[in-house]
Design brief:
The structure is a homodimer of 326-residue chains. Chain A has 326 residues and is of the alpha/beta class. Helix content of chain A is 44%, strand content 17%. Chain A folds into three domains: 44 residues, lambda repressor-like DNA-binding domains (434 Repressor (Amino-terminal Domain)); 123 residues, Response regulator (Rossmann fold), CATH 3.40.50; 132 residues, Response regulator (Rossmann fold, 3-Layer(aba) Sandwich), CATH 3.40.50.2300. Chains A and B meet through helix 4, helix 5, strand 2, helix 6 and helix 10 of A and helix 4, helix 5, strand 2, helix 6 and helix 10 of B. Chains A, B: It holds the Pfam family LacI.
């Protein structure tokens, strides 16, 4: 399709391009008749001022790249939606990139975003070994991820969340508590949850039961790993899951194998996205302040775009959502 | 942040801008030494070829605007993710716009996308009274929505899906079947599901029970409406819900009020997104072929961008997912 420019509008309205430009920028004297003629031509030709040309000239695109594993995962989906909303309120638009936990796809997106002159990037992926973020001149904010020098990290207070969840299980009488956690070899603020778990086990003289289920695994592999573990460890009477999906997979397996939740096994998740609780109001979980995380991340990114220095924010407050699984 | 151009690269490498341009376009003779020097300067300055300038020159941005109500709704989230993946495979990028069921936000996005010279738009919103799509010169594909002349609609075979769901409830002995449907005043292919419901009720001499719950309502309003209806109509023994959220809300209400699902009331949903079934494997539902819808919509849009004519596709095959709620 041929793109329409001011030349075509001028021709249609039978005026000069300078006149069209004056109407567009509301500059200089233009008679009502001429203005109407130009605007009618714009409507007829579906002409819209070219923001791309403006971006190129201003060296500012008002475009932000957002790289996440998936806009389907309820926690990330809600974050992405909140970020997109906040960006749109500030006149920015969002190029969404789902890495699908594929490191090469993530690297390709990073190059694509740079070639398209985005003003900054918000990243929430969990891939190991992706370089290109460290020491970048491009403003970058990472959510739930430490990407090294010059990037700013935003996360909830993971230690407090872990403590809140595990203490609840202890208070309800659990003696064999399982911590289903993410990949311990990736530098994630979420690792603090497991530190809280380990500290509370030690303090209460309770045995440690830890199962690593990396975030980047497929749902099928996560399901199988949890089921195998629970089959081999029937003594488990409390589960602190790394996210609500892991909690749901555990609950479903238990209920299919004649264990009652919460009577026989108590389960608590993490994240508490609105969507999850709408479909699964029974699930007890630690709610992350998703709206706040999105807001702080977006603000810090825009500040960085505007040349300000920014620091990490790792203590946004979590809360307990009481369902019926603990 | 100052954007780096080939001028800065040339200066850093101590060569002419013409030389940098020859390296970039791999044109003309360049000694290995010069090439290495230029590439080192690019790396050092984090210079990336400016795809924006290329887009402006070629009048083709390889950018597609995608407007949906929400990237959180599981069905739409999966569609968006599949579309984004398919676009990225074809060298396109996606500007994601969540209308949040706000008609003004949708109109503003449409203008923003046009100003940013997107090559085409995929739209899956449910707002009434949004003009600007009809007779557009810009290639537009609508999913589950009829937007008028010149736009192409893609949807599953909604009539077959409705028939499959309602026939299952009849086969399992339901006598008082409720159809929870969307807004009948919006022109949606999904309206065919209710036509299937009405035809089957007539054919089997069963009473009609229809509850309208517009898609654009808040979750809280949907919940309240369903609960009020079920409270006033305790005779309902089968529910065909317009989507899996409506089905989940009904199931949760019934179970909280001592009705067993499926023994007392059978419930079947619609959509069957992967995410929904991962968290709620018990839910019986009609699965839409989400991957196929995304593929057909993306293909048709790219064809239209390339100047080809396209026709509607309204019969992508649905399938039955047997959970434990019917």
């Amino acid at each position: 399709m041929k793109k329409i420019g001011i030349r075509e509008v001028a021709e249609e309205a039978q005026v000069s391009t300078a006149t069209v430009s004056r109407v567009l920028n509301n500059r200089g004297y233009i008679s009502k008749e001429t203005r109407d003629k130009v605007q009618a031509a714009m409507r007829k030709l579906e002409y819209y001022p070219n923001d791309l040309a403006r971006a190129l000239y201003q060296k500012r695109t008002y475009t932000v790249g957002v790289i996440f594993p998936s806009n389907v995962h309820p926690f990330q989906a809600e974050l992405i939606q909140d970020i997109e909303y906040l960006l749109s309120q500030k006149g920015y638009k969002m190029l969404l990139c789902n890495s699908l936990n594929n490191p090469q796809k993530e690297i390709d997106y990073l190059t694509m975003l740079r070639k398209n002159q985005v003003d900054g990037i918000i990243v929430g992926t969990h891939n190991k070994y992706v370089s290109g973020y460290q020491n970048s001149k491009l403003p970058i904010v990472a959510i739930d991820r430490d990407l090294g020098e010059n990037t700013t990290t935003v996360a909830c207070d993971n230690y407090a969340g872990g403590k809140m969840a595990v203490q609840l299980l202890i208070d309800r009488g659990c003696k064999q508590i399982l911590d289903i956690r993410g990949d311990s070899s990736v530098k994630l603020p979420a690792n603090d949850r497991s530190i809280a778990y380990l500290n509370l086990m030690k303090k209460n003289n309770l045995p440690k039961n830890v199962l690593e289920v990396p975030f980047v695994w497929s749902a099928a592999k996560k399901k199988e790993t949890i089921e195998n573990y629970l089959q081999k460890h029937p003594q488990i009477d409390g589960i602190f899951a790394g996210d609500d999906l892991l909690a749901s997979l555990a609950i479903f397996y238990l209920e299919m194998h004649d264990k009652r939740v919460p009577e026989d096994v108590k389960v608590i998740g993490f994240d508490g996205a609105k969507q999850t609780l709408l479909y699964n109001p029974r699930l007890t979980t630690i709610r992350q302040p998703i709206g706040q995380i999105a807001q702080v991340a977006t603000e810090k990114l825009i500040n960085k775009i505007n040349g300000k220095k920014e620091t990490d924010c790792l203590d946004l407050p979590v809360s307990l959502y009481i369902g019926r699984t603990v």
